[in-house]
Amino acid sequence: MAELLVAEGLRLVEVAPPVLPAVARTAMDREWDKAVLANPALFDGPVAVCAGLSRETPDTLLVSWSRVTYRYFALRRVPGATVQRSLFVSVVQPAEDGRVLVGRMSSATAAPGRWQFPGGSVEPPTGDEPLDEHALRRHAALELAEETGVDLPAAELTRCLVTHGEDGQVGVHYLAPPLPADLLRERFRTLVAADTALGRVPEFDRIALVGSPAELPDLAGPHVAYLEPVVRWAGRRVGS
User: What pTM was estimated for this model as a whole?
Assistant: First the structure.
């Protein structure tokens, strides 16, 4: 389960990356090599992990983050290893009838069969660009387009929630304007057709529209921890 947090302000501060003992680094590399053998589509690119979450003021959340690469998450498979969890964004995309779009991760991803909102881990900025609210919103809009085919200007996304999982994972969630259900399905079909024509495996192999947590058991497979509480929140906020 994940805790839902609401705040007017959000500030992100970069801190030093986690220091790994030599034994842990060797074990991490070994597990990463195994994961790549099982799924050659995995890419060891830059990614942000959450080093801490607190309330800087009653109305402002402070997120500390560090730069690592995706290889770092292979530590989850190492018994006894301490792992900082990912910082991610997601988009709550409603249909006009109040239901919200969720997707199932495809076989080409790191979590095949898992249901979640469109989104993904946050990548650190390059050069002198800051990792701030604008960067998170742009990343969320990009994930929405890449996974569902719904291409919206980042400015149309509104931060609605921050979730904090029991494992330390932090998600920043954005609310998109409602669109007709048929249009959402059409955009996804068009995206899948385009990816398939180019020989790519789409990130989502299926989408669904759900209106309440009572419908989630119908989605066979694992669900991300934040799915149920955010769907419940959306049912009250979007469906009202």
Answer: 0.93
Do residues 134 and 122 lie in contact, with contact meaning Cβ atoms separated by under 8 Å?
A: no
Per the listing, tokens 């030093």 go with: 16
Q: What's the domain range around 176?
A: 2-237
Query: What tokens does 3 get?
Result: 């805790």
**Beta bridge partners of residue 57, listed in sequence order:** 60
Give the residue with greater pLDDT, 94 vs 86: 94
Q: What is the pLDDT of residues 170-194, one digit of tens each?
A: 999 999 999 999 999 999 999 999 9
Beta bridge partner(s), residue 10: 61
Question: What's the CATH number where 107 sits?
Answer: 3.90.79.10
Q: Are strands 9-14 and 60-69 parallel, antiparallel or unpaired?
A: parallel
Strand-pairing partners, residue 110, are: none
Number of H helices, E strands in the chain: 4, 11
Query: Mean pLDDT in the chain?
Result: 93
Is pLDDT of 240 > 90?
no
Q: Which amino acid is at 235?
A: G
Q: What pLDDT, on the 0 to 100 scale, is given for residue 233?
A: 95
Q: Is the pLDDT of residue 41 over 90?
A: no
Cβ atoms of residues 95 and 177 within 8 Å: no
Q: Strands, E, within 158-203: which ranges?
A: 158-165, 170-175
Spatial separation of the C-alpha atoms in residues 123 and 180, rounded to whole Å: 31
- Residue 200 phi/psi, 5° resolution? -100, 150
How many structural domains comprise the chain?
Answer: 1
Which residue, 137, 136, 112, 133, is CA-closest to 123? 136
Give, in order, the Cα–Cα distances in Å from 10 to each of 21, 56, 147. Answer: 32, 9, 25
